[in-house]
Specification:
globular, 243 residues, mainly alpha, single chain
């Protein structure tokens, strides 16, 4: 329980009392999907309530759902996505890309990638019925955190930071553990769509892992956080395409 509490304090803004020892989570980074079950449940509330009360405006529900998904995490993963955008759009050497990504200023690359992913996520949600919106964001959050767990186990860092600290305490077998933690989602209806979402999240991980190695020489916390946002968008797209 200490590990889960430390995880939730790291990944959410939930008021959980005195800060736990970060090591409790860092040594068990495969637990990331547990945070996804929590954030996904919170983000699913607008869709569930709308379905229960017979409210059918998917545009409003999609906006509220996405807002909750970002708010519950304190926009930390969104910040990583924006930083990644600056790094990817920078021209020049690997060092210049890293400098652009780690700079605190927000550039055109950050705004572009942020807008693209958020628009895809919102549009995908808005194309679904309220109850399916709830299911899609729930799966998106769990699979997104699974991607973060994969990066923690397999994403060799390019500099010192949170990613290097967690990676140093992780084992490669944690990649298997974190995927197993996401498997209960297959108990939900629409198992084929859930499977498509699972495959999409894995695809996002491998593509982002490859791009990060080519552009930056490895992974950092921004890449890991961006993985959550991009994977969520990809999973939601699978729901939009398949349902």
């Amino acid at each position: 329980m200490k590990s889960v509490r430390a995880l939730l304090q790291f990944t959410t803004i939930l008021p959980l009392g005195t800060p736990s020892d970060f090591d409790q989570f860092a040594r068990r980074s495969w637990l990331y999907p547990v945070a996804g079950y929590v954030t996904g449940a919170v983000a699913a509330l607008p869709g569930i309530l709308a379905w229960y009360f017979g409210y059918s405006n998917s545009l409003v529900i999609a906006a509220l759902t996405l807002a909750l998904a970002i708010f519950i995490t304190g926009a930390n993963h969104l910040d990583g996505l924006l930083d990644l955008g600056d790094g990817l759009m920078a021209h020049g050497s690997r060092e210049k890309r890293i400098t652009a990504m780690t700079d605190r200023n927000i550039g055109a690359g950050a705004l572009s990638l942020g807008m693209i992913i958020l628009l895809i996520t919102f549009t995908g949600l808005a194309s679904l019925s309220p109850l399916v919106i709830a299911m899609a964001v729930f799966c998106g959050e769990v699979f997104g955190k699974m991607v973060m767990g994969l990066f923690s186990a397999l994403g060799k860092p390019f500099h010192e930071g949170i990613q290097s600290y967690i990676y140093g305490l992780s084992k490669r077998r944690f990649a298997v553990y974190t995927c197993i933690l996401a498997l209960p989602l297959f108990l939900l209806p629409e198992k084929i769509v859930v499977a498509a979402g699972f495959a999409a999240a894995l695809f996002v991980f491998f593509v982002l892992w490859y791009v990060a190695r080519r552009c930056f020489g490895g992974v950092n916390g921004d890449v890991t956080g961006a993985g959550n946002e991009i994977a969520r968008a990809a999973v939601i797209l699978m729901f939009a395409f398949c349902i």
